[in-house]
Amino acid sequence: MGHGPAVKLGKDNAAGYKTKIGISMFVVYTLIYFIFVVVNITNPEVMQIQVAGLNMAVVYGMGLIIFAFLLALVYNHFCTQAENRLNK
């Protein structure tokens, strides 16, 4: 007894734009995360530096989480604008 989609699904004219921006943001995040991993592997003493009462590992890790959330908000904003503009 299920139900179908809440809205009628059709062609998404903004799909190409959304894919491009999503991949770009993924690459940026991956590079920043890669730097975090490389520093931890090659020079772990850097992660012991105290910043605002916390060690660098905690600050960098929380920064990664916050950055991912901000990227999601930016992605949603730009994709919503593109959908409104291209899917009239």
Q: Give the tally of β-strands.
A: 2
Total helical segments: 2
Q: Spatial order of the strands in the main sheet? A: 1-2
- What integer is the average pLDDT? 93
Helix content: 55-70%
- Enumerate the spans where pLDDT stays under 50 for 5 or more consecutive residues: none
Rg from C-alpha positions? Answer: 19 Å
**What is the helix/strand order?**
HEEH
**Distance separating the two termini:** 33 Å
What can you see in these coordinates?
The protein is 67% helix and 5% strand. It is mainly alpha-helical. It has one domain. A two-stranded antiparallel ribbon has the order 1-2. Helix 1 runs antiparallel to helix 2 (56-86). The two termini are 33 Å apart. The mean pLDDT is 93.
Task: Describe the SSE topology.
Elements: H1 15-42, E1 50-51, E2 54-55, H2 56-86
Antiparallel strand pairs: 1-2
Helix pairs in contact: 1-2
Highlighted features:
elongated, two-stranded antiparallel sheet, mainly alpha, 88 residues
Task: Compose a concise summary of this entry.
With 88 residues, the chain is mainly α. The protein has helices at residues 15-42, 56-86, and strands spanning 50-51, 54-55.
